[in-house]
Amino acid sequence: MISTTSAPSPDAFALDLYTALLDGRGLARAVAPLARALGTSTHAVHLMQYEQGVLRESRCEGNGLAADVTAEYDSHWIHQDPWARAAARHGDGVLNLARAVPIPAYRAAPIWNDWKAPRDGAFHCISALVRAPDGMVGRIAFHRSVRAEPFGPAQEKLLEPIYPHLRRALLAEARLAAGGWHTARALRAGFAALRQGVVLLDRNRRIVATNPAVEAMSRQQDGLALLTEGGLLSPNPEARQALQRAIGSAIAAISGQVKLMPDAASVALPRRSGAAPYLVQALPLRRLEAMGMPEGFTGVMLLVTDDVQRPRPRAPLLRQAFGLTPAEGALAASLAAGRSLAQHAAQRRIKVGTARGQLAAVLRKTGCDRLADLTALLGRLTG
């Protein structure tokens, strides 16, 4: 049996709720005293945005729940959760989910059998719910494990005098989230055209926006994953630490703690397949002013390059950029594609000595002293 404590004073509790909204502490932490009074194992603040009855966005902030658990729920299990469907149908008020989704039905659901049961996840749930006209559904959900007693009338009665404050706090949180969701949609539209992967983080390392390129990389499960908290994750311990250091340095640079921060810190993420590693650059964003961005936004942009898919610079671009002749541009394009001098000569049916003469001209026009310097320069170009 889970022990419970007395409910917090509604007035004092309300003050702490509204303070949490103002200082950015988050509602999940602010409702912890109430969770203890209800005898819960975990609890979460969950916001869902519907458009014409279809779930478009979801954000879950948990207390007692690991970040990867809430991220996996937001990205996948929310769409299979009978509790979420029941919350979307229900109006404002306190809902004991056992009344909307009978325990035998929940026990048979895939979310329980395939995900929650193996890690002893939430089995009983009581929620404070609110619905807004714009399609937003908010809930503060309190959970108990399968071994605990279900929530009953006593817990429902305990929530009733506090519910009006929970409702106001949820509506305020939803309005804040709505601005973030609109921003994220605008950013995704702008980043969608980029072949590089883009992950935009706020100063707390939470994902603000991603683009289709990095989402596709994540689905391959070949060297990187996306998490709501922390942005990118690499299964390689050394690469993971290097990436976190790069993000930390960028955040420190925003605050002025690092005065000589380079424009971008670069990290290589090895891939399980053995393909060329992903190349990640962490760029600090200092009070960025741009359409679709929150005013004075500061954060970190991660640019992810898949070297296998990166388009190599073509001869016309190289000729224009460095004033090369057609033959010199063709040689530079071959080197950018990874071919050797001898391979280029064979492909063009010219002597290797002729190719060496063209290489000398390319080195001079690009300002490079060695072939290694030239290939490094070409490697930074695309198109």
UniProtKB/TrEMBL annotation:
Q: Which domain of life is it from?
A: Bacteria
Q: What are the HTH luxR-type domain coordinates in residue numbering?
A: 321-378
Known SMART domains for this protein?
HTH_LUXR (SM00421)
Q: Write down what this protein is called.
A: HTH luxR-type domain-containing protein
